[in-house]
Amino acid sequence: MKAAKKIGLFGFGTVGKGFYENLKKHPHIPVVIDKVCVKRIDLPRIGHELYFTNNPHEILEDPAIDIVIELIDDAAAAKVYVEKALENGKHVISANKKMIGESLEEVDLWHQVYEPSFLYEAAVGGGIPIVHSMDGFLHDQEVVKIRGILNGSSNYILTQMQQNQWTYEKALLDAQHKGFAERNPKLDISGIDASHKLSILAYHAFGEIHSNKSFEIESIETVSEADIRKAKSKGRKIKLVATLQRRNRVVECSVKPEFVGPDDELYSVDFENNAISVEALISGKHVFVGKGAGALPTGSAVIEDLKRVLGNYRYRTTLRPSLV
Ligand code: HSE
To answer: In terms of domains, do 278 and 206 share one?
Structure first.
């Protein structure tokens, strides 16, 4: 029997714990969490059998660690850890949409230069297998449009405000308690978090890098009670919609609140659910719906990446001339 692969885990917050809880339900996966790197080792936690350290080098420089799983919210530190781990021959799994979305040139280079896999399904759409689908089934055909709800917290807030007349403040607090929102929830409500995810999708859909600096981004804070009443009176809902469209070789990207009607596939996507509609020239429109935030759904995407790493899966994506 082959020895279990050793995992070095960075971060034990919402997603880290979600991954840990999920992994316990999959004893057949031949891995073991060898070390967990956290900022503070003195905090009481679940996972008493785990070895905690606050020294990243204990993982990065340990030749016995095969796979690094990076689930921290500090994008700058994550970038350093991910690159060092790849350089040291370790497979890496990350959920860091900010780091990946803002560093796609480096990410593209890492895919080309380093032999180990670098996978990040959990960075987009929580538990929805969208990155894998873009890199797999949809990789060799032209994608002309991606449109969706890419942030669970802002969708949760808008849903509670519209369905249950909650105040914005109450809904935000609840999204934080439920572990949907980022440590800095401004990223969720401003549309920035969704824009990072859109950049990642653009890279996988088109093999191109589109920085969110060129996106039109509008916060859900601009949605007033009058807007909500107006939407309701017209039988519509307000959703934070992320759109990426290719027209005449120009890619237009935006994240902004929109009125959507019952005939729109995003209309019934409520609470922390996300939806991503992908229009491909050959196979048509595909709509992926599922839980876009939360410990267990996001942790399950990490588990999927782990299984793929064990099967030596690598993303096929590298920058390429426009397909369209
Ligand atoms: N804060 C994010 C969201 C978590 O609400 O969608 C999942 O990326």
So the answer is: yes
- Give the CATH number for residue 61: 3.40.50.720
Which of 73, 78, 102 shows the shortest CA–CA distance to 92? Answer: 78
For residue 317, which of 94, 118, 42, 58 has the smallest C-alpha distance? 118
User: How far away, in angstroms, is 182 Cα from ligand 1 center?
Assistant: 7
- 261 and 140, same structural domain? yes
Return the SS3 of 136.
coil
Cα separation of 23 and 181, whole Å? 23
Mutation probe of ligand 1 site: the residue of 172, 188, 239 with most atoms within 8 A of C-beta: 188
CA of 191 relative to ligand 1 center, distance in Å:
11
**Residues 166-175: pLDDT tens digits?**
999 999 999 9
- Tell me: the pLDDT tens digits for 178-220? 999 998 999 999 999 999 999 999 999 988 899 999 999 999 9
Q: Which residues are catalytic?
A: 197
DSSP string, 276-309: EEEEETTTEEEEEEEE-SSHHHHHHHHHHHHHHH
* Residues 179 and 229 placed together within one structural domain of the fold: yes
CA nearest ligand 1 atom 4, residue: 293
Shared domain for 169 and 118, answered yes or no, is no
List, in sequence order, every beta strand (DSSP E) within 120-249.
Answer: 143-149, 216-217, 237-247
User: What's the domain count of the chain?
Assistant: 2
Q: Which atom belonging to ligand 1 lies closest to the Cα atom of 298?
A: 7
- Residue 74 belongs to what domain range? 5-129+296-310
State whether 119 and 176 are in the same domain: no
- Closest atom of ligand 1 to 175 CA is 5
